[in-house]
Design brief:
It holds the Pfam family HTH_Crp_2. This is Crp/Fnr family transcriptional regulator. The protein is an alpha+beta fold. The protein is 41% helix and 25% strand. It is built from nine helices and twelve strands. It has a four-stranded antiparallel sheet with strand order 1-8-3-6. The chain has a four-stranded antiparallel sheet with strand order 2-7-4-5. Strands 9-10-12-11 form a four-stranded antiparallel sheet, with helices on one face.
């Protein structure tokens, strides 16, 4: 099954392309379906030489240690590209990717994509812009791990997830669309599970509310932002 022009326009790196270019992409962009829990890519796998992007659903990107410990790197919502080494690197998967819910993935063969980039260089500019945003996010994360207190790192994580995945209003405040269990937050900011629980309960208790399953409600968004700034 091939993607339509309308579907391709929902992918971030293709969203502002001319309809003529989208028509060319639609002729070569294939759609693949994955059920919830299905692993798309194993860390260390040799990746097929293809462009990958999420059309529908959500993916989880993880690193798995030899001990079996799983560290969540990020969640990929619809519209985002992934598996960049398949077209711009060594072709080895740097992490494991699995479907958080039923998902659809778009792939385009590398040789075909590079040919289209030669004809329409603006495609490469959109891809570079996407990479630049991710590098900035990585820089901020590394800077936080080196120089900032754990409380600030946790606050930054919650603020980032609110911006990245959105929120919905509740009677208590605004709830993150993405669940963040203590264990996951601890791994993402480089602290212990016990320290994460303590900070959320004591240092951030009047700003955010933690509910069962990792449902985070932000009670005081302005104070949260003052901590992160």
């Amino acid at each position: 099954m091939y993607a339509t022009i309308e579907q391709l326009a929902t992918i971030d790196v293709f969203s502002n392309l001319d309809s003529t270019v989208l028509t060319q992409l639609a002729d070569v962009a294939r759609i693949h379906c994955y059920q919830r829990g299905k692993i798309l890519i194993h860390e260390g796998d040799r990746l097929p030489a293809q462009f990958h992007a999420v059309l529908e659903g959500k993916l989880l990107v993880q690193k798995i240690a030899e001990s079996g410990k799983e560290t969540t790197l990020r969640q990929l919502p619809a519209g985002e590209m992934f598996a960049a080494p398949a077209i711009f690197g060594d072709g080895i998967a740097p992490a494991t990717v699995k479907a958080l819910n039923d998902s659809q993935i778009i792939t385009i063969d590398k040789t075909i994509l590079l040919g289209l980039i030669q004809a329409s260089p603006e495609i490469s500019l959109h891809i570079l812009h996407c990479f630049n945003q991710r590098l900035q996010e990585m820089h901020q994360t590394i800077h936080g791990l080196i120089s900032e207190r754990a409380t600030v790192r946790l606050a930054r994580l919650i603020e980032y997830m609110a911006q990245q995945y959105g929120v919905k209003p509740t009677e208590e405040g605004v709830q993150l669309n993405m669940n963040l269990p203590h264990q996951q937050m601890a791994r993402m900011v480089g602290i212990t599970y016990e320290e994460c629980v303590r900070i959320v309960r004591k240092d951030l208790d009047k700003i955010v509310r933690y509910n069962r399953g990792g449902r985070i409600v932000i009670n005081d968004l302005s104070t949260l932002r003052s901590i992160t700034s």
